[in-house]
Amino acid sequence: MAYGEKIMNTYKLSMLLPGLVLLAGCATSGLEATGKTEGDPKYAKHLVIYNEPLAENITITDMKTRSRGGLLEVSVTLTNLSSSDKSIQYRFSWYDRDDFEVEQGSRTWTPVVLHGKSSINMRAVAPNPSVTTYKVNVREL
Amino acid sequence: MRSQEKHPLNRLLKSVGALLVAGVLSVSLAGCSKTVKYGDAAEVETTTTEFGSTDLQQIAAKMVDSVLTFPPIVEITAKRRPVMFVDTIKNKTSEHIDTESITDTISTRLLRSGKFRFVDMTKVAAVKKQLEYQNESGMVNQNAAIRMGQQIGAEYMLYGNLSSIVKRGGGRKDVYYKFTLKLMHLQSGIVEWSDEKEIRKTKEKSLFGL
C-alpha cells in the first residue's frame, strides 16, 4: 500500500513538473516604464506591472533624462529589494512626438546581474534628436 | 480460447508489442517535430560562450552611446557633421570573429544619429573604377560625368581592438571580452575619444556533463 502511494505521488509530481517548467518558461513579462519629455509633467512618467511576483522584488526607483547635444539621454535606476542576486534583462525603445517608434529594433535586450539589495543604472542615449518619449522594459529570465 | 488469452506468455507478448508500437510512434512523432521558426533578433542569445549576437549588440550600443555623449565630441558635432572612416578592428581573440560586422553596426548607428558622416574605405576600388569609366573611357557625356578629385577627406579615424581571456577549471569556463574603440583626429594624431566595453560569460558543466 505504501509502495502504491509512493508511485502515485511520483506520478503526481511528474504531471506537475512539466507544468511548472512551462510556466517558468513563459514568465517573460515584466515591468514597463514610460517617460515623456513633452506634455503635462503630471503624466510624464508611468509604470506598468505585467508580472507582480517580479515587481515584489525588483522595482524602478528613479527615471531621469537630460539632453546631450540634442539627443535624449536616459538613466533609469533599478533596485533589487530581495537579498538574492537576480539575472534580469532590460530594453529601451524610443518614440517621437507623434508616438511613432524611432529606429525600431535598434535596441536589444541587455542582460545584467542585479545583486541582492542593490541598484543599477540603466543608461541609454536616443538614436536621434526626434525622440521625445522612451520606454524601458525589464524582465527576469 | 480464454485460457490462451490469460496465459502469462501471451500477455507478455502483447505488452512487448504495445511497447514496440509506442516506440515506433514516438520516433515518427519526433521526426515530425522538426520545425523552422523565426526568432526575435533582439533576444539574448546564450547558446555557447563564443562571441555572439548579444555581445555584438551590447558593444555597439555602449560605443555609440558613449561617443555621442562625450562632451568634447558633443561640442565638435554641435554645428557640423565631421567625416570619419572606419579602420579595421583587430581581432586578438582566439576565435574567428567578423569584426567588420561590429563596426558596421557602430558606423550605421552613428550615421543615423545625424552627428557624423562616413567615407567607406572598403569601396575605394569600386569608386575609382567607376570614376575612371566616367572620365576616361570616352563613353560618358563629360557634362554629366562626376569629376575626379572632388571627394572629401575623412577628418577622424575609428579603430580598435577586441581581445579575450579564456579560463577553464573545475568544469567551469570563463570568457572575458574587452572591446576598445578609439577616435583619432587625423591631422593632429590626437585620440579625441576612447571607450571600452567588457563582457564576462561563464559556462558551468551541467548535471549530466553535457
Can you put this structure into words, describing what you see?
The complex is a heterodimer of chains A (141) and B (210). Chain A has 141 residues and is an alpha+beta fold. Chain A is 22% helix and 48% strand. In chain A, strands 1, 2, 5, 6, 7 and 9 form a six-stranded antiparallel β-sheet that branches. Chain A has a three-stranded antiparallel β-sheet with strand order 3-4-8. In chain A, a hairpin with an 8-residue loop joins strand 1 (31-36) and strand 2 (45-49). The model of chain A is unreliable at 1-26 (pLDDT under 50). By secondary structure, chain B is an alpha/beta fold. Chain B has six helices and five strands. Chain B has helices at residues 2-5, 8-32, 53-69, 71-77, 99-112, 124-136, and strands spanning 83-91, 117-118, 156-169, 172-185, 190-204. Chain B has a five-stranded mixed β-sheet with strand order 2-1-3-4-5, with helices on one face. The model of chain B has no long low-confidence stretch (mean pLDDT 88). The interface between A and B is medium-sized, with 21 and 21 residues.
Keywords:
heterodimer; A: 141 residues; alpha+beta; Immunoglobulin-like; 6-stranded antiparallel beta sheet; 3-stranded antiparallel beta sheet; 2 helices; 9 strands; disordered N terminus; B: 210 residues; alpha/beta; Rossmann fold; 3 domains; 5-stranded mixed beta sheet; 5 strands
Instruction: Give a short account of the largest sheet of chain A.
Output: 6 strands, antiparallel
State the CATH topology of chain A.
Immunoglobulin-like
Query: Count of helical segments of chain A?
Result: 2
The largest pleated sheet of chain B is described as:
5 strands, mixed
CATH architecture assignment name of chain A: Sandwich
CATH superfamily of the largest domain in chain B: ABC-type transport auxiliary lipoprotein component
- Category from helices, strands and their pairing of chain B: alpha/beta
Q: What is the rounded Rg of chain A?
A: 20 Å
- Give the SSE order of chain A as H and E letters: HEEHEEEEEEE
